[in-house]
Amino acid sequence: MVPYGEALEIQKHLVELRKANEIPDQLLLLEHPPVITLGVKTRNDRSHVVASAETLDEEGVEVFESGRGGDVTYHGPGQLVGYPIMDLRPDRCDVHRYVRDLEEVLIRVAAAFGVAGGRSSGLTGVWVGDEKLAAIGVRIARWVTSHGFALNVSTGVPEQALRSRMPFSGATRDIDPEFVAKFGAPADDHVLVLPLLLKEKVAALVYADAGADGSGRLDAAAVELLVLATSAWLEVASLRKQAHKEESTDAAGEKTEITPPPSAPAHSDPFAAHPPKHIAPEPEPVPPPPAVAEQPAAVAQTEPVVAAAAAAPAPATDAFANLSPEDADVHRKAHRFARLLVDEIKLYNQVKVSEGRKNRDLYDRLKEDIEKSRITYQKRYGNTAAGGADYFGQELVRSLAEDDTSIMGANFRRN
Question: Tens digits of per-residue pLDDT, 72-90?
Fold first, then answer.
């Protein structure tokens, strides 16, 4: 916790050192006690500071002229404040680009925690719907930057649950005041926050309390069991959905090969004893109808053929039929792994995927994630029998771009 005035002096000192090229680029990450900072837009108008000077003094909130761009900004506990001290010369001397780059960094940080942040037309900062997630206000002198961003981070109980991936309980004061104001404070001042896990990552935080009227009781053990069961169900549903997509590729090969004994699944499947509903049972053989002497022979012959066609659809072509069983298995696993990697990119970049499809520049927006996943895929299957098949590139086009390569953009390469 660094007082704002002290941080301001540290910035000024570092800026002078950076201008003199005595230090490399710096990044200060810190937290401030409650403070209101004023940007250059407030020099002649402080109407956006709605609290009186007496109220601010009573609450212990300081007010500072910051010298940065922008309007009024509040800093306080629960915010991650970042001050990049950087020399933008020689090839980054563009104020708008610098601000957009800060926004992009914050959007990616939010996405890493499952929060779909984005930009809002005509406004600076990062937004989740109509709510502001991060504020940006910078100062640039001789192309050396100072000030920066303030990212609103969940504090108290939610932060503990998110970081530890374990349930945490606490008091109302440990919850975001805006959340409490919107949904009401529990009568017993006791709250519970639980992480909902999917693929070993926190997909959501579940909040529970006993209610505002005082007549209820919070059964923490029951809520925790419900969340655990929901996590397991979502995991299994995800795996079954993935398996359903793979049926068309694997069905023919599986029918022609001897089925090995099922191995223990790598994932924890609470429904493993029950056959998945998406796998259709093998059709029972349909006995041919008895021959009818009065009918012509041609009719008697065609009826069993029609019955057989109705009972069993034509087998799908096995893409790996010409390969040895060992190589075919490697190709199927490589194909599945490519799908999982691309599905993960989609899951954690939903806003970027939507905007990229609309603007036909998906690759540029997702370049870092795509290339990291490509490296992961190549490390696992690049030197195997499936190394020459571009399953990862195929899945990018099929799943991300919906089979339209042009949506990926001009800079996209398959491998």
Answer: 888 888 789 999 999 999 9
Q: In the chain, where does the domain assigned CATH 3.30.930.10 lie? A: 4-152
Strands 62-65 and 35-38: parallel
CA atoms within 13 A on the CB side of 279: 14
Q: Are 132 and 140 in contact, with CB atoms under 8 Å apart?
A: no
Pick the CATH number of 4-152 from 3.30.930.10, 3.40.190.10, 1.10.10.10, 3.50.50.60: 3.30.930.10
User: By C-alpha distance, which of 178, 180, 186, 155 is closest to 168?
Assistant: 155
Angle subtended at Cα 11 by Cα 5 and Cα 17, rounded to the nearest 5 degrees = 145
Residue 220 vs residue 113, higher pLDDT: 220
Residue closest to 150 by CA, chosen among 30, 34, 58: 30
What letter represents residue 53's amino acid?
A
Asked if 22 and 52 count as a contact pair (C-beta separation under 8 A), the reply is no
**Dist CA 241 CA 112 (whole Å):** 24
CB of 186 closer than 8 Å to CB of 123: no
Angle among Cα 328, 334, 335 to the nearest 5 degrees reads 90
Q: Is the preceding peptide bond at 90 cis, omega within 30 degrees of 0?
A: yes
